[in-house]
C-alpha cells in the first residue's frame, strides 16, 4: 500500500475511527486475549467503549503467537476498514532469554554483542507476535539513586550513542518490511529523563538548553540516525514543560531539527499526568497540548478519546493534525507489512524452536561474562578447582538475577550461582547457605552460615539488591547494601578466610563495608538467564574479566552526581588526597569516585607505552593520528578496552576535563604487544557554544589514552583553522 493509498484510507475514516487509532490500550481490553474482558480498577475507570476498542490502533503487552493471532483476528472482524493492530511490548534486554541489564551491557563495551542481544530478543519477540519494543532506553545517567539507571548504558554521551545505534540495528535489521524476525524499536525517554532531581523517578528535570544538547540529546539522535521507528516521551519536564506537552521539544527539536517523521508515543498515562504537573486544568486541555506537541499515540489514558472530537468541533484543533498522526501510525503498520500479513512473524512452531533456544542461552552467557566488572582482587581470584567453597548469601541459590525489566523472564529458568558452581566443582566440596535475607538477618542464619564455611578454603558471598529495589520506581537514597548483608560480611570475617563478594544490583552502589572488608569484589549486575554459569566462568578463570564501568561508583552518596566528564572550577582541588581549604572539595570525603568510569580489573596486566601523535597540530582538513603500544605483561590471555579521551583546554564556555572520543577492545596473549591507533578529526572537537551553535575552537587540546578515565597517558596538540 503506497502513501497515496494510505492517505485515501485516512480520508475514509470517521473522526471517531481516527481518534481511536491514536489510542493504545492494554491487552485485557481486547477480545481474544486470555484475560480479555477482565477490566477492573483504573482500566475500568477509563470508560473505554467497545467501539473505541474495535478501532484502537495498538495493543500494549500482548505476547505469545497464539494469543496475538487471536487478538488480531477478533480485532479485524470488528474493524470496519480492516486496519490491523500494532502489538507493542517492553522487550528491554531480552524477551524470554534474558540478557544482562543494559547498564551491564554498557560495561561490556562490546557493540557487536549488544547488537546480537537485541537481534535475539527481536527473533524471540517477533515469533511470539510482537511488532514494536519499547527499547532502547538511551537516557544519560549520573545519579545512581535513580532506579532506572539499570536501563541505560551509562554516563557518557558517546558510549551511549554507540550502544543506541547497536541496539536499533539489532532490533530492526536492514529491512524491517521483509525481515519478519525483527521488530521496530522505540527510543526512550525523550528527553533527559535520566536527570531527574534527587534521583527520584518522575521528578523535575531543569537544565540549560546548552547542557541538554551537549550531553543528553546525542544518544537519541544516534538512535534516530540509525533509523529508529518510534520515540517515547519522558515523564519529566524540559524547559519547565512536561515533555508530553512540550511543543518546542517535540515539534521543533525532535521533528524539525532531528528530522524524525516516525511515530511519537506517550509513556504510560503521561498525557493525563499533565494535570498534576500543573500545566493542564483537565483532560481536555491535556489532550490539546499533547496533540499540538505532536504526540501520535496516547498510552493508557483516555484524554484523546474523550476530548479530541470536541476540540475539533470547537475549532481548537485542526483535524489535519489528527490526520497526520494517523498517517504516521498507518505508515508504520505498512512498513511492518501488517496490511498484507496482520499476523506478521507470529508462529507457534517457530516460537517453540527459537524462544530460549540453546544458542540464545549461550549468547546470554557470553554477554553476561563480558558485562561483569572485577573491582578488586587481592590475589584470591581466579579460584582453583581443588578449593573447598562456601557459597553464602541471599543470592547463593536465587533466580532473582534477571532484573526488574525482564518482563517474561522466568526466575525458574535462571541458572543460579549454586547451579553454576555445581557445573564446575570436580571433587572439591561446596557448601551453600543463605546467611541472611536481603534486608533481614537472624542469629540462626548466621550460625548456619558459619557452620557451612568452617571447613571451606574460601568464602564466596552472593550479595545485592532484590530486583524490586531498582528499576522504575526503585529509587533509593541510601545506596549501600542493606545492613543485614553488611553484618553478614562482618560475621564471616571472624573465620579469617579469604572472602570473595559477588554483587547483584541494578545501580552503582556505595560499597563501603564490602570492598574494604572482602578480598575480591565482582560486580555481576543482574546478569540474566545464564547468570550463574557466567559468574562461575569468571570466578574460575575460564573467562577472564573484561568488563569496564560505564558509570562511576561513588565513594559516598554525598558526592552524587559524580561522573568523570565534569567541569573544572575556578578553585579546583589539587592532589586527590590533599586537604586544603578554599578549594572545591569536601572536608570529609574525596572528590573522586571510588571506581571511575572505564575502570575494571583483569586476571592479567596491561602496560601502555610509546604514545605518539602524528603532528603537534591538526586542522579541519588534516586529521590527527594517535598511536601507542599495549602489552599483555601478565600470564594469561585477556581483553583490554583502550580508551581515548580529549580535553579542550580553553573554550568559549567551560569544557569537561575529559571526554571519551573513541575506544577499541583488543585481545592479547601473554607477552603479546599491539599497536593501537586512533584518528581524531576536527568534527570530534566541536561542542555547543553559548549561542547553541555547534563548532570547534582553535587552541590547545590534550589527548589521553588509557585503560580507564583516570589512569592515562597524555599528549597535547593544537587545532588550527
Automatic annotation (TrEMBL):
InterPro entries: Cellulose_Degrad_GH3, Fn3-like, GH, Glyco_hydro_3_AS, Glyco_hydro_3_C, Glyco_hydro_3_C_sf, Glyco_hydro_3_N, Glyco_hydro_3_N_sf. Residues 640-709 form the Fibronectin type III-like domain. Transmembrane segments: none annotated. Its EC number is 3.2.1.21. GO terms for molecular function: beta-glucosidase activity. It is an enzyme of class 3 (hydrolase). SMART domains: Fn3_like. It catalyses: Hydrolysis of terminal, non-reducing beta-D-glucosyl residues with release of beta-D-glucose. This is beta-glucosidase. It comes from Rossellomorea aquimaris.
